[in-house]
Amino acid sequence: DAFGYPFMLKARKGGYDGKGNAVVKSADGVREAFQSLGAAACYAEKWCDYEREVAVMVVRGRGGETRVYPVVEFTAKNSICHTTMCPASCSAAVQDKVREVAAMAITSLRGSPAGIFGVELFVSRDGSVLLNEVAPRPHNSGHYTMDGCSCDQFESHVRAVMGLPLPSDTNLNVGCSMMINVVADVNEPTAEAPAREFSKLCSLPGASGHWYGKESASKGRKMAHVNVCAPSVGALWERLQPAKDLVGIGMPVVGPLVGIIMGSDSDLPCMKECCDVLRELGVPYECTVVSAHRTPDRMMAYA
């Protein structure tokens, strides 16, 4: 009653890929939700009307020192991670807050654990950041580091647990990187369908494929992932086009960042070089005529 409806009921242990979660929409649904989680120890969470889901990999050394990787934004299909996009599309201020909350969560863990942690968070519509969950291991949210960072999440994990120096540089070494999970849609004794999807994704420019070597497929089983790197979001969008049916909801939203407007198309020869430079840099732009004298209504609508 304190949270109202709907709220989320979660199992205290064993949750992953959406398993261990149940939405309670009314008082009549409490018992059913509890039974669906195996009638095990649970806790309730207030419903979060978030704008986007983000994640951060945090590595903690034996001495308590930490390093924080960039913020990624991710999408899910059937409660399983589908894509991650780095960098995230939220503002720099929000990303700083996300990294701060993630680091605080890991430094607050009892027992001084060492290793890599995947920290998932919600960004609310008002810009506030809420901690969702912590995975004490290498994580889907960090797979992009295998091709986008100088020290990936797996090496960072080994360094931390072995007491070796943590990486001095955890920044993204490319303009942007998207990870696409290859997840089996059906049960089959072979992995032919996921292999075809994997092959198509690997054919994209800037793609690096990571096949897990599983011989059979079952629905919801992660079979592989592919990282696609590019110098800019615009360039990444172009590279993903041949596989947009596979990427789907994970496709980056690319709107014009720059508007080139002029009072008449006779001004276009003067602005052409500006268009050329933006295209070369991979900056999404639009070029149009907006006349304050002839089309004031269009000018107001554009503004």
TrEMBL record:
Pathway, per record: Purine metabolism; IMP biosynthesis via de novo pathway; 5-amino-1-(5-phospho-D-ribosyl)imidazole-4-carboxylate from 5-amino-1-(5-phospho-D-ribosyl)imidazole (carboxylase route): step 1/1
Signal peptide coordinates: none
EC number: 4.1.1.21
Domain ATP-grasp: 3-162
Domain of life: Eukaryota
A Gene Ontology molecular function term of the record: phosphoribosylaminoimidazole carboxylase activity
Keyword annotations of the record: ATP-binding, Nucleotide-binding, Purine biosynthesis
InterPro entries: ATP-grasp, ATP-grasp_carboxylate-amine, ATP_grasp_subdomain_1, PurE_dom, PurK_C, Rudment_hybrid_motif
Record-level GO BP terms: 'de novo' IMP biosynthetic process
Name recorded for this polypeptide: phosphoribosylaminoimidazole carboxylase
The organism of origin for this protein: Zooxanthella nutricula
